[in-house]
């Protein structure tokens, strides 16, 4: 670019050169670099930086809350877990912001965390159990995990992996093969398998079912269970080959189901899936007037007639969260049923490929629902001279009810957010646990 000549200099006779370019000249200097391939490269770089920033902003909170393993050290960010509400911000002193629902504030107050014997659940041990057989620290969100730790002062916490699970099964075998005193446990007699009848007029109905990823299938109609029988004392010898049976289970979900019943039978306490969030202190699950009698806590996962697609019974109980005293007959009954069913066919039921429906009926919520109704009928129904406990007894319930030693929670207790059964879609006063359905057990590996 040629310099600009401006007039005579001070010495006279010459001209003066201006060293400051005009604005047009400055733009002309940069213009060639902002056109053609150069411009495209610049835009690509800027777009990449913007995308990187968005990704960091989107996932930074989740990344911070993953269990990170650095140099073999497992680090847990001990932060107050945020509540499952749209307004989850907190002020510097730890209190909820003014736009947070008032009912969400009640259980945040520090003076509400009393841990003396008068407020504990006297029959359910202060133990929390999670099971994650294929343990991958990077896949666990501490936003969920730490909610169980933060809201459960003085509770012990155990996360069982494969090694811990094998140790637990070994304890069962050791107890079953112990010399000397005969080991006996209470078990309900075998419940006849309920085969659901299918209505042909609803096969094409588009319903999501109990799980958000539920697939289309024929919807079963009401199935009535037979009359119940009292629990019987049974020799624990049925569990002598439990280790071989456990190792023969072809799907991970079968082992995870088996273990949740086993850990509560041996130890008692609270079991919950790793993709759940604790909303209320465990002692607040049980109304104070019912704490002295409660030995088992169950919650509804479905309450509809005809039954929700993917279920068998109008009222069905979840088993993603359970709480019980040790040696409760429902837990031993489930263990007995699982191990016994494995021997009913040549090579064992675990010797063949099992469908999702088989899983639900052998170890899952359908089998669990049958056992719970059996127990309820014995502690509060025909077994004590009262009317039989059926699904009609429980449907539509809005408040916790105590039947004998069993506390039954309404749909919002453990199943807030499910797309059916008139469940609340947001955390409510009745919400005790939120299930986020992050697990994917409906596949060949699961």
From TrEMBL:
SUPFAM superfamilies in UniProt? Nucleotide-diphospho-sugar transferases (SSF53448)
Region ranges (Disordered)? 1-20, 419-446
Compositionally biased tracts (Polar residues): 422-432
**Coiled-coil intervals in this record?**
none
Q: Pfam families, alphabetically? A: Gly_transf_sug
Q: Which family does it belong to?
A: Belongs to the glycosyltransferase 32 family.
Protein name, per record: Initiation-specific alpha-1,6-mannosyltransferase
Organism annotation: Sporothrix epigloea
